[in-house]
Structures are given as structure tokens and as C-alpha cells.
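Predict the assembly for these two chains.
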Amino acid sequence: MTEFAIETEGLTKVFRNRWSGKELRAVDDISIRVRSGMTFGLLGPNGAGKTTFVKMLLSCAHPTAGVAKVFGQDSRIPGARQPIGYLPENHRFPTYLTGWGMLDFYGSLSGMDEATRKRRIPELLELVGLDERAHNLRLGKYSKGMLQRVGLAQALMHSPKLLVLDEPSDGVDPVGRKHIRDVLQNLKETGVTVFLNSHLLQEVELFCHDVAIIQKGRLALAGSVASLTGGSGFRVEAANVPELVEKDLRQRAKTCERTEDLLRLSFNTREEANLAVDLLRAAGSEIESFSRTRSTLEEVFMSTVK
Amino acid sequence: MTATYALIRDTFREAFARKVFWGFFGCCTALLLFFIFLMRVDVVAGATATVSLFGKTSPGQDVTKIVKGTQGFIAAFMYVAGIALAVFASAGLVSAMFEPGRIELLLSKPVSRTHLLLGRFAGNVLVVASNVWYLTIGTWLIFGIKTDVWGTGFLLSSLWTIFMFTVLLTVIVLVGVLFDSGAVAIMVTFAIMIITPILAQKDQIERLLSSEWSRDLLRVMYYVLPKFSDGAKLVHHLIVNEPVTDWMPLWSTAIFGAAMLGLAIWRFERRTF
């Protein structure tokens, strides 16, 4: 067993207009590796090439160059897709099927036998929070949130080792979103690799260990969430700071801002921050917090795609 | 095998949901009821020496002729109208598979593209075949019980009807793979159904053509395209138990179907969704 659930080497997709001959490089030479059991988030603005990348990973689109491997096998080989569970964005599940029927159909396509399907379907429908009434209700009568839930159940049907989720909580209410996050969290603990394509940066930041940001078809940034959001400076927050001390600190700090009674300072080095704390203590101010500066994933994302 | 069965069953479910199957089934049932009504079938006193068909009493020796003539009419009706209806119904079933949001999920499964396409194709053929057999066997039983004429030609004719539909379905599948459009698939298939009977008159048309290249073109078109009207003649031969002397319409049509299906598979395998 390879240590990588997903491995792409120079993955490229060029769309050519037959008539004008114009080329669009939707995905341009992307090489990424996702370790088994890891949670990975793929980010990028609209039209960055995320969906095309995912489609090549699942063999829905053929690469112009490069290769996409799943657990060491070229994903174009049907058997290589056996360990993948997929929830597409803008899915169009057959509306004539019931929740039960849909899981039964896609489970069959994944090679599950009837007895296993019968055992697994009620378990999964319960897991994603669909009550018995929904089991025999046609998908055409499902709400958007219910469709997302049944879609997730479908992706989990054959106990995949790799879960590829495209906007999994799209259209789901906050309670449902939390529920889905809990389900994914449990899967993460059982060693399932989760590949998440989402616009909800906060969700990705909370859930994913590693992220990659795609911009105009190219890999713009990749790394662990901790390393990308972790800053090198320090932040001090203090209350009851005398005016004279504040004036002094403003000259020493990298940034300084006041919100009512609270003074927020940031410094490049630990020494500078410690000196500021000493000054504040000596002036009788109260230290509210002392921490490393961190960026949010949103800030990292915005500065990358700017 | 599980995946094949699932694909076929899914096609049936979609045909049920789109009322395609029930539409066919309803038409066939209505036709069967119509025959029962017309022939006033008395199951208990079924086989009789003389029968009353469509209000006329015929001597026993004419029964076979009348029955086969009627069966021929039904077979021809099924062949032309049935296939036309089936083409209408199937175009939607094929193109639905390529809908964005649906095809991606199918392709992500550990099933080859060829398998997916052939599974859908087989399901579609079986949806139509089950109705054709329902009407054929029903009609055959009604006529048989009433008249005691049990020729197998009528039953065999249904095989040709299904065969011709299968060949036309390969065109629907190819056009569906190329253009994702049920409407275009219907247009192209109907064009073939209209053009080929004209081409079947090639001997007469050739005499009207002045240039050799146009005659060659006519011949090529005739031999390449499926033999829709020649098939009707073949069906007639089967029903009246006449020997079929020329099987060319069968094998050339089969080659056409195989080529269309091969092209559809080739294109589907290479297509990006």
C-alpha cells in the first residue's frame, strides 16, 4: 500500500476550441501529494481549475498531460476508483429513485453485494440524519439539505478509503453543517483520507490538515494549515495603558491599535514583545493576552489570489 | 454482473418514472383489448372450425390466411409505429445519462465507461423488447386461442422488430454521446427511417440518375445504412412462412449497428465531462 492516497504528477488540462483554435489551460502542471489518512482542502477562486482537477482525479476528464494516481494506481483504471467515495457539486441524482434506491444503485455500481447493501443502507441513512420517512421518499421531493445528506451517504456507501467531497455542506443549514462536520470528523479518526473542495474557508481551516490553493490553473500555495496561518511575530493585548506608555509602545511595535480600553500591539520578535510586557506591568496595566500572531486561512487565501 | 444488473434495472426504473414503459404498456394493452373485443374471444370454446373475424364469417381453410394477414398487419404496425414510438422514448433515456452532475458520479465508480454505456444500452433494448414481446405474445395467444392457428412466424417477426430498434438505438446512443441531445438523436434516427425506404427503391431511382457517381453514391448509401423497409419485407416473409432468400438486409444492418455502437463507445471513452 502506497503512503499517498492522491498523487498527481504534472497534471495538465488544456481545452481547445475546435473552431478558433484558442487554448485554455484549465489546470497547468499541478503536482500534489495527499498522504493516506490526511484531510486535505483544495481552495481557489471560481474558475481557478479546482473542479477540472477533481474531475481528472476521478477520470471524468482526461488529462492533456500528467497523471493522477489514487493509492498508487492511475485513476483511469476502473479498479483504481474502487476506494473512492465521491460527492459532486451541483449533483443531479436521479429524482425517480428513493433515498434507499439511490444508495442501492450506487452501491451496486461499487460492486457491493445485496446483503451488504441491505445492511449498510439503513445504517448510513441514520448516520447522515435522514429519518425513516425519507428512506422511501423519492429524491425529487427531497430538500437541498436532504440531498446533500443522502449524497454524503452515497459517497460513504462502500466504506471508501478516500472521500472526495465537492462543497459537501452546500445548501445545508447550520445544524446540518455541524452534523456533516461531525460525520467527517469521525471518518477522519478512522483513517479515511478526506479531500475537500470547498469555498467555506472557515470550514476548511477547522477540518483540514493540509491545503492547496489553485490560482489560474496553477498551484499557488500548498502546505499544512498550521504552517500557512502561523505567523512569526507576537501579539500583546493590554488594558488600562497610560497615555505616555502607549505613545512609547507605538514607536516600538510593528502595529498598534486601540479599541476602547484595549490596546493591541504586535511585535516582530519575542524580545520586543517581552520588553513591552515589562513596560506595561511597570505602568500598572493589565495584560489581557500574549500570543503568537496568526493569520486566518481567509487572509492567506486573499493574499495568495490577489 | 452486479453493476450490469444495476444499470439495466436503473434504466427500467427511469423508464417507469418517465412513464415511457407504462405508455408503451398501456398502448399494447389497449391494442390487445381491442383485438379481444373485435374477435369476441371465447376462451372455453376457443378452437373452432369457422371463425368470425371483424364481423365476417370465413370458411375454415381461409382462417390461416386471414389470421396471418392480420398478424402481418399488426407486425407491420408494430414495426413502423412501435419503432417510431420507441425511438421517441429512448432518446431521452440515453441523453439523461450524460446530464452534468449525474455522469460525473457514474464515471467515478469502479466501472469502465464501455460497461456503463452498454449497461444503459441493454436496459433500453430490454424496456422496448419486453413491450414488443408482451404485444406479440398477447396477440399470438388471442389469435391462436380463437382460431387454433399457431404459426411461429409472427413470434419471429418480433425479433426483427427488436433487432431493428436495437440498430436504431445505436444511432441514438452515438448522437447522444456526441451532442448530449435527445432531440438531435430523434431527428437523425427519423431521417434514417425516412431515407432508407427511399434508398430501398434504388433500382428504380438508378434509372433516373444520369451520372455514374450519383448512382455509386446511391448504392453506397443503400448498402451502408440500415435496411428499414427491406426489414418489413423480411417480417412479412416470416409471418406467411415464405422462405427468406436474401439475408443481406440483416447482416448489413447488423454491421451498421455494430459500427455505430463501436463509434459511440470509442467517443464515450475519450470524452471529457
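Residues 231-305 of chain A form a domain with the Alpha-Beta Plaits fold (CATH 3.30.70.980). Chain A has two domains: 4-227, 231-305.
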